[in-house]
Amino acid sequence: MVNTISVDCVNLTAYTPAETTELVSRAGVKKGNTPPHKIFLSAFSAGCLLSFGCAVSLTVLSSPWYQENAPGLIKIVGALVFPVGLVMVALTGADLFTATTMFTTVAALHRRLPVWKMLLHWTLCFLGNLAGSLFLMSVVFGYGGIFNASPYKEEVIAFATKKQVAPQWHEIFLRAIGCNWLVCLALFLGTQAKDLGSKVIGLWLPIFSFVALGLDHVIANMFFIPLGIWLHTPGLTVGLYIWKGKVPVPLPTFSVTSPLGGLNFKLMNLKVSFLQLWVTF
């Protein structure tokens, strides 16, 4: 007799928002108490994995005919393939800066994680993501010459110009707020799911939305913009990238969306008062 194992591809049940908030909090405690070197390595892996999704999206967007005749369609297709990077990050448990800030914020609000550990985790994740993104961009795609030929090179330059050279500082900042909000929502929905198929769908939809809307993601830009610099995008320099990419894009993550997302989940699902919230810190 052969033993069989029944596996549900999609489970129609899910954790409630309150249960999900508790799971997010516990995950935040685990992340915040991880040894620093492991946090950095996990974040390095996340930077690499997300960069693969960025590269796939750029490859799809490098279609001149569609760019001229059906720009909306090719933008949607590019947005559909981009989330593969975040899905790989989430399913492998790697630490992405824009997502892990929500987890550790909720844990800190529950007084399960000291604020200094939360801030240390944020810092190591940011640096690890940057290192991973730059490593993959330079070693695999830069020296590998994957985007050196036409039309891929033209698309990289056009994309970097659109993301970093053309917009104003405040425009990039405001776009990053919307982006980080959707990234936090994606990880919340992914945590809410009880099976792999539902988890992927929950992760995919908000990420697809922010890419289709043209919002700015700080870790994705760690691949897109340095690649544009590598390929000599006119007007794009390291100094400009630091001023318009390293300040306005990550700023909403730790000042607006992740903290407020954590507050929102805590207030809605755990029924604490603003007085209790103030006492937490």
TrEMBL record:
An annotated Gene Ontology molecular function: high-affinity secondary active nitrite transmembrane transporter activity
* Keyword Transport assigned: yes
Where does the protein end up?
Membrane
User: Could you tell me the Gene Ontology terms of the biological process aspect for this record?
Assistant: nitrite transport
Q: What is this protein called?
A: Formate/nitrite transporter
Coarse class of the protein's main subcellular location: membrane
Q: Which domain of life is it from?
A: Eukaryota
Q: Does the keyword Translocase apply?
A: no
- GO CC term (a single one): plasma membrane
So where does this one cross the membrane?
Answer: 39-61, 73-99, 119-143, 172-190, 196-215
**Membrane topology value:** Multi-pass membrane protein
